Every structure is written in C-alpha cells, then in structure tokens.
Amino acid sequence: MNKKAAITGGSRGIGRGIVRRLAKDGYDISFTYSSERGKVQAEALVKEIKEQYQVKCFAHQAALNEKGEAEKFVQKAYYELEGLDLLVCNAGQSLVNSIYEMDEKTIDFLINLDFRSYLMAAREAGRIMGENKIKGNIIFISSCRGIRAYPYDELYGGLKAGLIRSIQTFALDLAPYGIRANCISPGPIRVRTSEEMREEGVCEQEIEDLDNLWKQLPLERMGTPEDIANAVSFIASDQASYITGANLVIDGAASLPGIPENRPKDDEEFKVWCNFKRRW
Ligand SMILES: NC(=O)c1ccc[n+]([C@@H]2O[C@H](COP(=O)([O-])OP(=O)(O)OC[C@H]3O[C@@H](n4cnc5c(N)ncnc54)[C@H](OP(=O)(O)O)[C@@H]3O)[C@@H](O)[C@H]2O)c1
After folding, report:
1. Among 3.40.50.720, 3.90.1150.10, 3.40.50.2000, 3.40.50.2300, what is the CATH number of 4-211+222-250?
2. Catalytic residue IDs
3. Which of 18, 51, 79, 274 has the fewest CB atoms in 10 Å of its CB?
C-alpha cells in the first residue's frame, strides 16, 4: 500500500517540488492552495501527478491563516488518503519586512500563517498518528533566517526561529510513539522566473536583485525546489530513522558568512554591507 502524505502550500514553489518528489517516491498525496491563481496551479498539478505517477492526489483550498483550517486539512487528508504517514508544513509567506513598517493586521496574519498553522497541523497529525499507531513523520519548512539575525526580519525571522525550536519539543513529545519531527531550513530558493514575477507585479529592481543574487552566494547558484524536496524525501525515509528534532539547513552556505541577501544599495541612507537604514 502507498504511504500517505499531506503537504500545505503544495500548489507552487517549494511545496510543488515536494509534491512532485513525494509522488515520485510513491506517496498518495493531499495538498493545499489558498488563492484563485493557486486553484488553477493546483488543478494542473493534480492532473500531472495522477498521469505521471499513478498515485492518488487531492488538492484543497485552505486559508491557513484562519483558525481551525490547518487542523481541518490534516483531518481531511487522513480520511481521504485512508492514513497519514507524513505531514509537511510548508505554506507560508516570506514577508521579510521591518516590524516598524508593518501594520498589526499583517503582523497577526503572518503569526497565524507562518507559525500558528504549523503548530496546529502538527498537533493534529501527531494525535492522529499516535492514536492510530502510525510511526510517521512531521516536517516543518522553516528558513535559514531562523538561525541567525538579519536586518528587517524581526517577525519573519523570529517565527522561523520559533518553528525550529518548537519542532524539537514535538520530537520529544512524539518520540515514544515512534513519530519523528524535523525542520528543514531553506536559504534563497528560486521559485519564480523573472517573467512570472513580472506578471505578479514585482518591481524591476527586485527582479534584477534576485537575478543577480546567485553571485553573492557561496555555491554561486540559487537553490531550487528540488533541492528542498530531495531533503524531505530523505528525512521521511527509513534511511533517516534515527534523525529527529533536527534542523537541516539547505542554503548553499548562504547563512554562514552572514552576507546580505539583498544587493547593497548605492543610496546614502544605506550602509553598504547589510543595507542598514537610518530610520530616525
Ligand atoms: N523561496 C525561498 O527562498 C524560501 C526560503 C526560505 C524559506 N522559505 C519558506 O518555504 C515555504 C514555501 O515558500 P515558497 O517560496 O515556495 O512560497 P510560494 O511559492 O509563494 O508558495 C507558497 C504556498 O503557500 C500557499 N499560501 C500562501 N498564503 C497562504 C495562506 N494564507 N493560506 C494557505 N496557504 C497559503 C500558496 O498558495 P497560493 O499560491 O494559492 O496562494 C502556495 O501554495 C514558506 O514557508 C517560506 O517561508 C522559502
């Protein structure tokens, strides 16, 4: 019988890479998307997965920033897949912005999506796996911003750090049931082409910055969704059966020297090495 995996935010980016890889590994899949655009991408992915890998594949709309939605998705996945061996919490928004420039609504949105939904989904999956004696896996997709400080990411970086810390306790609490819980922390991953970014209304400066970012990275390339998906596949496999409570950083060493992820600006207000801006 195929193993069963639930993935949040599987419609595109890193999540889509994870869906594809797990389907290739022979998992039946249930994943989420949130937007109208995501619906189109999700439907195309379901079709691709069913045709290419002959596994079950379901997609569900879920606004995971809303209370109750994460748990509901995990329950739905468990019933429709008739089991749950793996939960990958990935859906999130990389809102890297100074907290001084965020309104409270955005702050609450990010806390609920990038932190709360992970914990609630993992809590539900742990309960289901424990009650049903499934020696399953839970994986959080965090970020290398969770392991060291960068300017302008009090909230995003803080939430990602919280996930890395929280998974350690999930690992302890669920270990007696044979359930493993781990984090994967990606560095800069190219999830959109320049053209796709343009279509989404991203400004030319930002696109140019991203196009040139690889030059500043130790391995001199951006990461890909496949880089992260390969790690998910390994962590969920029996080859990793003694790995739990770990955080696997996959960033091509980007976070080691602490180099800025953004190109230094010429603007006098920015100090060159890390884009510090005088606010007052
Ligand atoms: N890309 C990177 O460089 C990078 C680096 C480190 C960590 N990460 C982390 O990796 C994860 C995936 O990032 P990504 O770059 O692959 O993002 P992405 O391409 O923008 O995809 C995000 C996924 O999350 C879903 N999503 C967005 N808002 C949601 C909401 N309110 N409720 C439910 N689902 C929602 C999206 O669905 P729709 O498309 O339908 O909205 C999509 O499926 C995130 O947790 C991110 O923080 C990314």
Report:
1. 3.40.50.720
2. 156
3. 51
